[in-house]
Design a protein that fits this description.
By secondary structure, the protein is of the alpha/beta class. The chain is 39% helix and 10% strand. It is built from 19 helices and 14 strands. It has helices at residues 29-32, 62-75, 80-95, 98-120, 152-170, 178-194, 205-214, 217-234, 302-308, 330-348, 361-375, 405-418, 423-433, 435-448, 457-463, 470-482, 520-523, 572-578, 587-596, and strands spanning 255-260, 264-269, 281-284, 313-318, 354-359, 381-387, 420-421, 468-469, 492-493, 496-497, 507-512, 534-539, 557-563, 581-583. The strands form 3 sheets. It has a 10-stranded mixed sheet, sandwiched between helices. A two-stranded antiparallel ribbon has the order 7-8. Strands 9-10 form a two-stranded antiparallel ribbon. A hairpin with a 2-residue loop joins strand 9 and strand 10 (496-497). The longest helix has 23 residues, at 98-120. The chain is globular, with a radius of gyration of 26 Å. The two termini are 27 Å apart.
Length: 627
């Protein structure tokens, strides 16, 4: 990469909070193509009569797009057309199924009769709480023993029975498309969850008990908590800023920015052992999150754990885009991100292969970059590790509910006006996936109980949200989610198709049991996409808590099993039965795997490639993370 600029040619960092537009960088194709900051991305269309093919076409129907953008402000980015079509599909097929309607009505009558009979015999011998229905193991709303007493247990059972009935009513209707069925079931469930008895003071025994004990003081504290959150929201400040400060209490591993372009800062961390493995580790985090999820506090920092195990670690820190970056493409993240980082590491540690790790969307990007490198005969990668990352998006969990042509077009129009997908849309989508844990439990705890959960580094990181450029996010949704081009061999890089089957480097792939963003069965599909050794590990926890699993923290477990390159495929259900379970963190298992694929330890490498005219780039965590 002839435009790579090592640290020796970079000027002094002068980016206290905003990065100057003239920071030397790799050229961005969007700007090289002539896009200005005030121009909007041009969507390719068929040439109109009298126009030459390839001529720049104006935006199609700008008034319609502006109207959709305005409507998106009212709907939270959810397409009303997509939602309406789903309900029409369900309701029309249900209307044409009289026997199914009779069955649903009979279920309602039977459930009502059983509930009242159970209520009349609640105090009878042998008739205890949860006689009709019990909460699911993951439903913690009614886990406390106070919910086992009347009348609160009856209220909880009535609510759960109503949820169960609506689930049966919205699913299993013959003829309804699977996605529309999922949309209807999900939206009805979200609506019902709003009216759970745990969300109201008069029907929540814990709130009533707290009010009696405190003389109603909990409601005063709850009101204060609500006002405080409202002020934080309006001032665009993340909750927990005072307790957790980037560079002081989180993201504190010692390191230095050794390379910078317009999209990334590359951090090299100082070694903590006298000898290190000669192959460095490059971590590619997702840009929908700040990188320091993998470098939180010293006790749960993956970066610190790796340096303590004798590895040299490099980390990509993505710059948080703004509306001026609207035309940055998805492939720019590959070229200015992974490719630029690999080239910079090559300047610092020439002749050494790299252990590459990608997390979430960063793992998808790393897979694309690795397939491109394999296609072009580039063997710089010694191994590839994917954490909660997907390369096939046909079963990408409940996120796919928001991915259809109508919804993607609606989101594109919203981003077309703003130039990006902002933090509120990002946070809202992920909160909806776990609304009981992330929305309604907080309402009850913070505003009704008047309490605050103890601050944590993970909560502070979660509140430090990022944005996504218009063009990049549109390409991501269409090429990967909507069309699944990567898995089906249609994904083009520099005009030529890539195939994951070209990857030969051994792979270590991690999924988590309760991942709502990248379900482990979706991540498992890598087994039949690549022609390489694949070690698959299933960790306890969810998308974040399952990955951040330090060895000293209790409650973790994992299953792991390797499939050699030429071994026959084993399905996920069979794998789950065959893979042994191990108590503890998965981090040591992974470092043992890395060590087995590394050469003998040697002296640590230099930090960067030297000063630039007496100046240097900043120490870790760098400047981009503060944007």
């Amino acid at each position: 990469m002839n435009s790579l600029q090592p640290i020796s040619t970079l000027p002094a960092a002068q980016v206290p909070s905003e990065v100057p537009s003239r920071v030397p960088s790799l050229p961005c194709p969007a700007h090289a193509a002539g896009y200005g900051e005030d121009q909007r991305a041009v969507i390719p269309t068929e040439p109109r009569a009298g126009q030459e093919p390839g001529a720049q076409q104006p935006e199609p129907y700008p008034a319609d797009r502006a109207f959709h953008a305005m409507l998106a402000n009212l709907t939270g980015g959810i397409s009303p057309v997509a939602l309406s079509l789903a309900y029409i599909d369900w309701a029309s097929h249900l209307a044409a199924a009289p026997q199914r309607r009779i069955e649903i009505a009979q279920d309602a009558l039977n459930v009502t009769r059983q509930f009242f009979e159970s209520a009349l015999h609640f105090f009878s011998p042998g008739q205890g709480p949860w006689a009709l229905i019990k909460p699911a193991p993951q439903d913690r709303r009614f886990a406390r023993p106070e919910w086992e007493t009347p009348p609160f247990n009856l209220l909880a059972q009535a609510f759960l029975l109503r949820e169960q009935w609506w689930h049966k009513a919205t699913t299993g209707v013959r003829g309804v498309s699977p996605q529309n069925e999922a949309i209807v079931e999900f939206s009805v469930r979200q609506l019902l969850d709003m009216f759970a008895p745990s969300n109201f003071a008069a029907t929540n025994p814990l709130v009533l008990q707290k009010a009696l004990q405190s003389g109603g003081e909990n409601f005063v504290f709850g009101w204060q908590n609500w006002l405080s959150d409202l002020m934080l929201l309006s001032s665009d400040r993340a909750q927990g800023d005072k307790e957790f400060v980037v560079g002081k209490t989180v993201a504190t591993s010692r390191g230095k920015v050794v390379y910078r372009n317009k999209l990334i800062e590359l951090i090299q961390y100082y070694p903590s052992t006298g000898k290190v493995h000669p192959e460095p580790i490059l971590i590619v985090p997702a840009w929908i999150m700040k990188y320091y999820i993998l470098d939180l506090s010293p006790h749960n920092s993956l970066v610190k754990f790796l340096t303590d195990q004798g590895f040299t670690v490099f980390m990509i820190s993505w710059r948080n885009p703004d509306p001026a970056d609207r035309d940055i493409a998805f492939d720019d993240y590959r070229k200015l991100g992974v490719d630029a980082a690999v080239a910079a590491i090559g300047d610092i540690m020439p002749g050494h292969q790299i252990h590459a790790l990608g997390y979430c969307l960063g793992g998808t990007l790393l897979s694309i970059a690795a397939a491109t490198m394999a296609r072009d005969g580039n063997d710089r990668l010694r191994s590839i590790t994917l954490l909660a990352a997907q390369t096939d998006f046909t079963e990408a969990g409940e996120l796919t509910l928001f991915i259809n042509e109508s919804e993607v077009a609606f989101l594109e129009d919203m981003m077309w006006e703003r130039g990006m997908l902002d933090t509120t849309q990002m946070a809202g989508a992920f909160q909806l996936l776990r609304s009981n844990d992330l929305i309604w439990s907080r309402v009850a705890h913070d505003y009704l109980m008047g309490e605050r959960a103890p601050p944590s580094d993970l909560m502070a990181w979660n509140a430090d949200a990022t944005r996504l450029p218009y063009r990049m996010h549109s390409e991501y949704l269409r090429k990967l989610f909507l069309d699944n081009d990567l898995a089906e061999g249609r994904y083009l890089v520099e005009g030529r198709a890539i195939a994951l089957s070209d990857i030969r480097a051994p792979m270590f792939v991690v999924g988590t049991v309760r991942d709502h963003v990248a379900p482990w069965r979706s991540a498992y599909k890598i087994h039949y996409q690549v022609d390489a050794d694949v070690t698959f590990l299933l960790a306890s926890g969810g998308h974040n808590a399952g990955i951040v699993a330090p060895p000293d923290e209790e409650g973790h477990f994992y299953q792991v099993k390797c499939k050699p390159e030429h071994a026959p495929y084993v399905g996920p259900d069979e794998w789950l039965k065959a893979a042994p379970r191990t108590e503890g963190s998965w981090w040591p298992e992974w470092t043992r795997w890395l060590t087995a694929r590394s050469e003998a330890p040697c002296d640590p490498p230099r930090m960067g490639v030297g000063p630039a005219g007496g100046h240097s780039l900043p120490d870790a965590p760098g400047d981009y993370v503060h944007r």
